[in-house]
Structure prediction request, 226 residues.
Amino acid sequence: MTLTKAGGLAALVCAGTYIFGFVFLVTVFAPLGFGTGETDVPAVVAYIADRPGVMIAWNTTIYIVNALALTVLVVALHRRIASERPDAAALAGAIGLIWATLVLGAGMIANVAVEQVHALAADPEAAAELWLTLQAVELGLGGGNEIAGGAWILVVSLAALASGIFGRITAGIGAVSGFAGLVTILPPLGETAGAVFGLGAIAWFVAVGLVLLRGSRTTFGRGLAA
Prediction:
């Protein structure tokens, strides 16, 4: 398998982890208030005490699996862009690897939080305090903002468009998603911008995956990559 095709598969995996995360947020974790700004901390602690494996599986998928797939995609896109725009490729590659590192770190901390809170299940107050502390670190690394991700998607989209790898559709989706990610730095707009970033990123990852897997050999590939 070539690096380009591996990157295409990695992009689809990234999209899949986002879809998985959204589905769990609106179904399994809906009673906990995740993503609403009104998380029910006692409910979270109780849930972790009863089903820590579910929470760890969720964290592992949306953070760790995503970060590893993202690393492959970053390298694949860097290789493709470098032949035409070496400086842009270098910048995009650096930002992308920073984002992948932050996502991986957030996932590791999130899983440690679950393990530690589960160990303190007999003392709900101490467990809640610990969870809030570790969650703040998790959110600071990237779970609560999308600045690094927004910057990478925006830079890659513009560089790939200039290089002829992406067409206007893929680049446009990336520009909207990337800008929304940068806007998450503003507290009043954080939640809305985060939702736009997440949904836009799903569409962008799928488009990029198809471009890398199919190239310009099909009509759909030409529409996205030409």
Notes: Residues 21 and 58 are 7 Å apart (CA to CA). Residues 216-223 have pLDDT under 50 and may be disordered. The chain has one domain: 3-225.
